[in-house]
Amino acid sequence: MNISKGKFVFTKSDTAAAEKLSAVSLSFWQDAWRRLKLNKAAMFGLGILIIILLVAIIAPTRMVNQKNEDGTVYKYDAAPIILDEDGVEIAKERLAFLPPRVPGLEKIGIFDGVAQIEIGSYDLVIGVLPKTIEFNDLRKITNKQALIDKLGIPYHPYDINFKSVYEDENDVLMADIIIVKTGEEVTITFDELSSEYTKYQQGNFEFVKSTIDKYGIEMIKIKADYYEIKNIKNLYFWFGTDKLALDIWTRVWIGVRVSLIIAFASLIIDFTLGIIYGTIAGFYGGRMLDTVMMRFTEIIGSIPALVLMIIFLAIQDPISAAINSISPVPLTVPVIRLIILILAMSLTGWIGVARVVRAQILKLRDLEYVLASRTLGASKARLMTKHLFPNIIGQIVVMATFTIPGAIFYEAFLTFIGLGLPIPMASLGVLVKDGYEAIQTIPEMLLIPALIMVMLMLSINLLANGLRDALDPRMR
Amino acid sequence: MVRYTIQRIALIVLTLFLILTINFFLLRLMPGTPFDNPKITQAQKELMMRKYNLNDPPFVQYTRYLKGVLHGDMGVSFKLQDQPVTELILSKLPHTVKIGAQALAFGVIVGIIFGALAAIYRNSGIDHAVTILGVLGVSIPSFVLAAFFQYFLCAKLGWFPFLYSPVNLDKGITLWKSFYSTILPSFSLALFVISSTMRYMRSELVEVLNSDYILLARAKGLNKSQVIVRHALRNAMIPVVTIIAPMAIGLMTGSLIIERFYGVPGLSSLMVNAVNTNDYFLILGVNMFYSLLFIVVVLIVDLLYGIIDPRIRLKGGEA
Amino acid sequence: MKDKILEVKDLEVSFRTYAGDVQAVRGSTFDLYEGETLAIVGESGSGKSVTVKAIMGLLATNGYYKNGSIMFEGNEITEMKERDMHSIRGNKIAMIFQDPMTSLDPTMTVGKQLTETIKLHHDVTKKEAHDRAVNLIELVEIPEPASRMKQYPHQFSGGMRQRIVIAMALACEPRILIADEPTTALDVTIQAQIIELMNDLKEKLGVAVIFITHDLGVVANVADRVAVMYAGRIVEIGTSNEIFYNPYHPYTWGLMTSMPDLETEGKLLAIPGTPPNLLHPPVGDAFALRSEYAMEIDFEEAPPLFKISETHYAATWLLHEYAPKVTPPAIIVKRKERFSEVSE
C-alpha cells in the first residue's frame, strides 16, 4: 500500500466545529409544519377545507342570478322576491321545491332542473281542477263520463293504461295507450288526450315508465322539468329550492358557517372549561381538591351524555329566560335557540379534556426539567406558562381538531330529531333534515348538504390525523 | 375479583339513584304542565293535576316515585292513555337493544380483524385501504349512510327492505326475515364502530409489535404468526376494549336517527315524543333505561378488561 | 486453544430511511471463542446493538446486509432464510435485552413463557417442559420456583425479571448468549447480582457470551476480551487487560480517561464533539474530527486493523510505521506502566 509519508502530519482538528450541531435547529412548530406538509392526505384535507371555507365566506353574499328585485336585500331565511316580465312578484309556490339547475351543467344533463317523480295517471292527464262546485261534483267516480265531456278529452285516465309517450317525426308529442276494457291500443296526440288543467305539456316532461301496483292503480314515472312547468325558465337556482322556496345554495353555505360556528363555540366552551378544570386538578394532584374534582367528573361522566342532553333540552324554556335576563341586548328566538344548542352540546365534552390535561400536568410536573427550573427559582406561574403549556398545547390542538367533525355531526343529529335549530334557520343539520323529507322526489336536496357535510368532516379528519402525527414528539 | 365486581355494582346503584334524583328534580323545572292543551278547560286541568298528584309538594312526589320504582312501577304516561311506563319501555327496548348490540358486536369484531391486518401488513395495499376506510367511516354520519342505503339498496336495487320488521309469525315475518331487515340498520350504525376500532387496533398493534417483548419472542425463535397470535394480539386488544364504552354512547345517539330512518319501534320515538309533550314519567323512565344500558355496557367492558389484562385482575383481588 | 464458534468478517449493515441509507455498521471484524465473554463497548449509535441483531437475523424491516459475512456452525447467516433462522434463535444463539420491565409479555404467565421456548425447540411432553422450566427458575436463584411458574411478570421485581429473562435464554442451552446492555436499567446492587449470576452460569454451562455495554466498570467484571466500537466500526479489540492497561486507539484513550479510578489525579478528560451522522459517514477515520492526534491521512482513508499482539489489534494510523510517535494522556501512560505487572 503506497501512502506518502507526508500524510502523516498532524492537522488542526477543529474541535469547535465538532461541537457544532450538524443539523439545523428548528422550533417545535416549524418542525411540526414541515412534517405536516409531507403528509399528503393531510394536505389534501387542508386544501378541501380551505376551499369549502372560502366558498362559505364568499358565496352567500350574492345569490347567484337572483336578487330581490324590488330592491330589498335577500336574506337566506326568506324566499327571494323575484319579478317576472310584467314586474309582478312571482308567487312562492312557483319557486318552491325546485330541483337544482346550473347554467352550463344542464347541457350535459345533470343539474338541469329535472326531477324524476312518480305521479298517478289522473295527475298526468287531468291535473288539478278548479275548485268550483261543478268540478267538485264531476270529480266523483260516478261522473267519469261527464267529466271527460266537460274537459273535452276522449278518455278518462282510469280507463286507460299508458304504454309510452314520445315525440314523433314531426316533433309532436304522441301517446300510446291501451284501453283497459277492450285491450285496444290507441295512438293519440298527448294534447288531445290531456285536459287544459294539467301542468304537464309537451316540452316540460319526459315519460319514463308506467307501472301498475297491486291495487290496480297506475303510477307513471316521468322526468319533469320543473322550471319549464312553473314557467320560470329564465331562472337558475344552483342547488334548487326547498319547500319554503328558500334558495338552497345560499342556505348550504350559510349552513356551513353556522355549523362551524356552533362546533367552534361548543369546542371553545368545552376546552376552556376543561383546561382550567384539568390544570387546577393536576396542579393540586393527589390532594383533596384534586380528588373531589375528579370524583365529580366521574359522576357527571357516568351519566350518558344523551340523558343529560335530554334533560337540558326539556328545560330549555327556563334556561332561555335566564339567558335573556343576563344578556345586555334583547335576543331573538333563533339566537337563543342557537345558544341553547351550543350549551347542550358542551355539557359533557369538557370532561375528557380535563382528564387529559390533568394527566399531562401530573406527568410533566415531576419531569426533570421542571424540577431543574424550580431549582433555579422559577415561580409556579412561570412554570405553567413556559414549560407545561407548550407541551400540552400540541395534544390539545389535536384533540380539538378531532372533536370538530363530531360536533358537526352532533348538531345535525340534534336537529334531525327535532331538538336543534328550527326552520327557517340554516345549518347543515336543518338542511339534511329537510332534504330527507324530500328524498323520494328530489334526492339532491339531501345528497348535496350531506355531501358537503361529509367533505367537511372528512377534510377535518384528515387534517387532524396529519396534525397528530406531526405533533407527536416520538416521531421526530 | 368478586369483591371488585360487588364494588362496581354498588357504584352503579348509587349512580342510578343519583341520576334518578337529578332527573326528577330538574324536570320540575320544565315549563308548563303535561296538560297544556288549549282544548282542556282550567277545571279539567285541575282535575288531571289532582289525579296524578302533581299538586303535592315535590318531595312527597319524589318519595312516592322512589317507592314505586323499587316495586317496578315507574309511573304512567300521561299522553299515552295511562299506560304504565315500564310496560311501554319494555315493549320498545328489545328492538333498540337488538340493533345496537348487533352493530356493536359486528363492528368490534370486524374492526379488530381489519385493524390487525393493517398493522401486520403495514404500508401495504391493505393498510392503505384500511386507513381510508377508517377515515371515511368516522366522517360519514350514520344518517347519511342510512339515506344512501335506502336510496340505492332499497329503492333502486330492491335488495333490502326499507323498514325494519320485528318477528311476527302471523304476518309471515319469520325469524330470518326479521333478521334480514335488521342488517341495514345495524350496518349503518356499525360503520362508525368498525372505523374507530380499526384505527385504534392498528395503532395499538403497531406499537406492540415494536415493543421489547415481541423482539424477545422473536429472539426465542418464534415465527411471525406465532408471535402475533400468542403475544401481540392479546396485548394490543387491551386498550381497544377501553374504547368500547364511549362507542356505546355513540351508538345510543346514532340509534335515534337510525330508528327514525328504518322505522324501528324503539326507545327513540318514545323519548322524543315524551320530551315534546312534557310527559314526566315517561321521560324519567326512558332516561333511566338509557343510563342503565350505558352503565351495563361499561360494567361489561370493565370486567372484560379485567379478564384480558392480568395486571388489573390481580390487583383487584390482591390485598 | 479454544475453538472459534462465530466469525464476523467485514460486516456492513445499513438501514433504508426516507432520508437515505443509514450505515449503522461499516466494516466490523471479530471472532468469538467457545466459552469466553466478549464485551462490546461504545457510545449510543456506535452500532453495537445492530451488530448483534444482525447475528440473530433480527434486523428491522428496513435493514439489510450490505456486505460481509457471519459464519456460525458452518452456516452463512447473512444468507440464511428466515425459517432456518428459527431453529437457531433461542436454541443455539439466545439474546437478552436491556429493560427487564418491558422484555416479558405482561399477559402471559412466566411459566408459560418459559415452557414456550422449551417446547419450541425440543420435542418434550408438557410435564417435561414444566419440570425443566422449574429447574431453570431454580438455576437463576429465584426461590419457590414451582409457585412462581404461575405468576405474571408484573409480580416480579426488575432484578428478578431479568433473571427470568436469562433463564428463558438459557432454556435450550445455547452455545452463544448475547446480552444487550442487560444491567443498564438496574440498580447498582442488582447489577452486581446479575453479573455474578451470569458469570456462574457461564462457568456451569460453558456458554459463550457477547456482552454489550457502555459501562466500563461492568466490562472489567465480566469480559475476557473487549471490542471497542465507534461509528459502526471496531476500532480496537484485545483481552481485557490489554484494553484497559495498554490501549492504542485515541478513542479508547478517551474512554479510559473519562472514567475515574482510585488513582486518578487531575482533571477528567471529556471527548469533545458528538459521533458522526451515519447517514453521511465521514471518509477515513471517523474519530479524526474529535481527536487531537488526527493526521491528514485520517481524513482520507480509513485505517485497517494493525496487529499489536496475537490477541490485540487497533485500527489507527498512529500504528503505521510512518506515523510520528505520540504520547497518550497522562492517565494512560500510568496505566501502561502497570500493564506489565498485570499481565505477567
Describe this structure as you would to a colleague.
The complex is a heterotrimer of chains A (476), B (319) and C (344). With 476 residues, chain A is mainly alpha-helical. Chain A has two domains: 131 residues, no CATH class; 228 residues, Orthogonal Bundle (MetI-like fold), CATH 1.10.3720. In chain A, 53% of the residues lie in helices and 9% in strands. In chain A, the strands form two sheets. Chain A has a three-stranded antiparallel β-sheet. In chain A, strands 2-3-4 form a three-stranded antiparallel β-sheet. Chain B has a domain of 216 residues: MetI-like (MetI-like fold, Orthogonal Bundle). Chain B contains 13 helices and no strands. The model of chain B has no long low-confidence stretch (mean pLDDT 78). Chain C has two domains: 220 residues, 3-Layer(aba) Sandwich (Rossmann fold), CATH 3.40.50; 116 residues, 3-Layer(aba) Sandwich (Rossmann fold). In chain C, the strands form two sheets. An eight-stranded mixed β-sheet of chain C has the order 6-7-8-3-9-10-12-11, with helices on both faces. The longest helix of chain C is centred in the middle third of the chain and has 18 residues. The mean pLDDT of chain C is 86. Classes of the chains: A mainly alpha (476), B mainly alpha (319), C alpha/beta (344). Chains in contact: A-B, A-C, B-C. At the A-B interface, helix 12, helix 17 and helix 19 of A face helix 1, helix 5, helix 6, helix 10 and helix 11 of B.
